[in-house]
Amino acid sequence: MGEHYLEYARLNPLKYRLMFNTPLPEPKLHPEMMNNAKRAFALLTGRLASAPVQPAAQGDAAPARLDAMFVWSTLHGLASIMQSDALHTLDMEDEEHKCVAPNAMARMGLALFGKESG
What we know:
By secondary structure, the chain is mostly helical.
């Protein structure tokens, strides 16, 4: 799911920015849009709820909604960074650019599942 999120942001930069970098309209006036947003978050939450997620700290499992927020915020931040000139500003090599997304996915896999995910 994360790879598809990043791919959508890469292939549709204007739509992605429109979706996330403009103020939301009044939710009550746009119930279908709000339902679609809630549905997307529920899909991610459901996927995480059915996965063998590692406890967040010392045996306490985080609710799937909190894990979903962790994943979404990580992917959203990465997608936004990759649409900017930040990687070039940091003088990252082209080979490093190719590793940014796979590394983030692997690190999220370690955080959530105790193993790398691909």
